[in-house]
């Protein structure tokens, strides 16, 4: 069991940064790694140990907070080696006595289309774990271990001595890719895979973050201060989880282990990413990443491509509560443009329009489901959100507008890793 005493977020970064979660009182070895493989992204959660005295610990912290695969793998090696060396120095005793205090849950993501990169990263993590475990075992041996036999001509690993065997490699997997890539992961990593239901992992991950991690949940409105929620909330249930991945799933949660998928839509993060990819390729910018596309939207002006209520009425339509700035038709101005004008349309404007289109649609569907089930709180999860101000404001505004302020939109710092966190906590 993970020791959850004093769990908190790592060093402060922006809302869009991937922050580690610190477990200051957990001092046992954690052999498993968790992965949530969706249609667009593979999200990984793994645990590393802290070193209170190792000179490499600060470098590890800095590397891990950057969220890159190469730096995260290097940081893992620093932490694993530090932990093993500290225990080896005394041969026995508690980890704390040898400068090891607690650890952290780290996060990194990969495009599912580039699953080979994810496999390479996982292989490095497991190799680090194996090396650290062997260091500890050899340090406790009464005499130096005998020399290892040479590798066989077939290129396989040499056999290890009895008592110096690495611990079993355990991978906790969820999402559709847990089934699609199961054979690949077993073959390439030599792991034992435990597969868990995707929806159950999403809810388990969310419940953990809401209950145990301070300053994890917040509400967001443009031009207003961020409001962090109390942890744990006074009334945990019922709530609705809108998970925005490639598509969207809407879950009603009424208690611990009591959940039901009540709705969803195929217009999700994959819709925005796919349409933007086609348009960007047509403009000679095929190399844009998802994060690049979101960044473009910040400088975009959707009114150059969207038809507004004011474009139709010349003013507000106050009788039914529509401002002149309300979008009446997404991309509704484009068909009126000349071919040359269409060709010169800024991709920034397109990005912002598409982001509004997807977010507004999800927000309205979420509200309608919350109203139908009498649920006052909606948590928005999934990597599509990515801590992006425009996305969060649009979802929050839609919920506030349609519910007349009676339903609350809530966001999470680890919105894209709910499934990975849930899978990680399944293996207790």
List the helices and strands and how they pair.
Blueprint lengths: L7 E2 L11 E3 L8 E6 L3 E9 L7 H10 L2 H22 L12 E9 L3 H25 L30 E5 L2 H4 L1 H8 L2 E4 L2 H15 L4 E3 L7 E2 L10 E6 L3 E8 L2 E8 L3 H14 L7 H9 L8 E2 H5 L13 E3 L9 H5 L3 H27 L3 E5 L7 H15 L4 E5 L5 H9 L2
Parallel strand pairs: 3-6, 6-7, 10-15, 15-16
Antiparallel strand pairs: 1-2, 2-5, 3-4, 4-5, 8-9, 8-16, 10-11, 11-12, 13-14
List descriptors:
428 residues, seven-stranded mixed sheet, single chain, alpha+beta
Description:
With 428 residues, the protein is an alpha+beta fold. The protein has helices at residues 57-66, 69-90, 115-139, 177-180, 182-189, 198-212, 269-282, 290-298, 309-313, 339-343, 347-373, 389-403, 418-426, and strands spanning 8-9, 21-23, 32-37, 41-49, 103-111, 170-174, 192-195, 217-219, 227-228, 239-244, 248-255, 258-265, 307-308, 327-329, 377-381, 408-412. The longest helix is centred in the C-terminal third of the chain and has 27 residues, at 347-373. The chain is globular. The termini are close together.
């Amino acid at each position: 069991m993970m020791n959850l005493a004093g769990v908190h977020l790592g060093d402060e970064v922006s809302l869009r940064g991937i922050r580690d979660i610190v477990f200051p009182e957990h001092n046992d070895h954690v052999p498993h790694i968790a992965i949530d493989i969706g249609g667009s992204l593979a999200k990984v959660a793994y645990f590393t140990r802290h070193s209170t005295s190792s000179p490499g610990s600060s470098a590890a912290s800095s590397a891990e907070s950057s969220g890159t695969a190469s730096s995260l793998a290097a940081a893992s090696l620093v932490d694993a080696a530090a932990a093993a060396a500290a225990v080896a120095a005394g041969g026995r005793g508690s980890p704390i006595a040898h400068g090891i205090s607690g650890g952290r849950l780290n996060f990194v993501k990969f495009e599912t289309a580039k699953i080979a990169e994810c496999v390479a990263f996982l292989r490095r993590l497991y190799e680090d774990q194996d090396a650290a475990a062997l260091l500890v075992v050899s340090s406790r041996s009464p005499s130096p271990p005998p020399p290892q036999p040479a590798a066989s001509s077939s290129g396989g690993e040499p056999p290890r001595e009895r008592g110096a065997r690495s611990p079993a490699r355990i991978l906790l997997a969820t999402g559709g890719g847990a089934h699609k890539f199961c054979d690949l992961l077993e073959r390439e990593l030599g792991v034992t895979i435990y597969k868990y239901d995707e929806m159950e992992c999403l809810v388990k991950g969310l419940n953990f973050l809401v209950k145990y991690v301070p300053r994890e949940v917040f509400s967001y409105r443009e031009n207003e201060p961020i409001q962090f929620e109390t942890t744990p909330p006074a009334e945990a249930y019922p709530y609705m989880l809108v998970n925005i991945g490639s598509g969207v799933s809407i879950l009603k949660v009424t208690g611990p282990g009591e959940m039901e998928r009540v709705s969803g839509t195929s217009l999700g993060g994959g819709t925005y990413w796919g349409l933007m990819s086609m348009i960007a390729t047509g403009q000679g910018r095929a190399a844009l990443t998802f994060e690049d596309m979101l960044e473009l939207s910040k400088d975009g002006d959707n009114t150059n491509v969207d038809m507004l209520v004011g474009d139709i009425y010349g003013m507000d339509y106050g009788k039914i509560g529509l401002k002149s700035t309300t979008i009446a038709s997404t991309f509704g101005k484009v068909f009126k443009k000349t071919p040359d004008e269409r060709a010169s349309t800024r991709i920034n404007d397109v990005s912002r329009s598409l982001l509004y289109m997807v977010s507004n649609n999800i927000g309205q569907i979420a509200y309608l489901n919350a109203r139908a089930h009498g649920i006052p709180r909606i948590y928005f999860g999934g990597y599509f959100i990515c801590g992006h101000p425009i996305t969060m404001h649009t979802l929050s505004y839609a919920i506030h507008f349609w519910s007349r302020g009676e339903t609350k939109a809530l966001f999470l710092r680890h919105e894209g890793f709910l499934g990975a966190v849930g899978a990680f906590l399944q293996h207790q």
